[in-house]
Amino acid sequence: MNILYLSISGNTRAFVKKLAGYAIKQHTIDSRFPEVVLKEIHENSDFEKEREPFFTFVPTYLDGGNGIDNGDTEILTETMREYLEYENNYALCLGVVGSGNKNFNNQYCLTAKQYATQFGFSFLADYELRGTQADVERVYQTLVETLKTNVH
């Protein structure tokens, strides 16, 4: 299971590393459960054409406001959007997982929701900040189920 992610403050990186660790444990118990391959996208990344299906993890950083009629413009995470656009990489994306801070109400996970709308893939799951162990397990199960239904 391939995961492309972008991490600004380290929260997304921490979450996907916990997810990868959990995946290893699940794979050890039952080899039908996939392990996770992580690829961090950042402003210095060399863009390349993706060849295998993947999931995208993206935090939310916006320019303020309320996320409804203002403050819904993506900042800091544009590199992931550009990477998905590059060579139509988005076509291999099986879905997006968003994160953020629930204190921001309508802006919570708005970047991931915008990606889903723009690129036509599903918004699969969310978690707050670095997520909990329950979030890791829930998100992993969602990814496994999505993988089963989309990759033959």
From TrEMBL:
One of its GO terms (molecular function) is FMN binding. PANTHER family: PROTEIN NRDI (PTHR37297). This is Flavoprotein NrdI. It comes from the Bacteria. Gene3D superfamilies: 3.40.50.360. It comes from Enterococcus ratti. SUPFAM superfamilies: Flavoproteins.
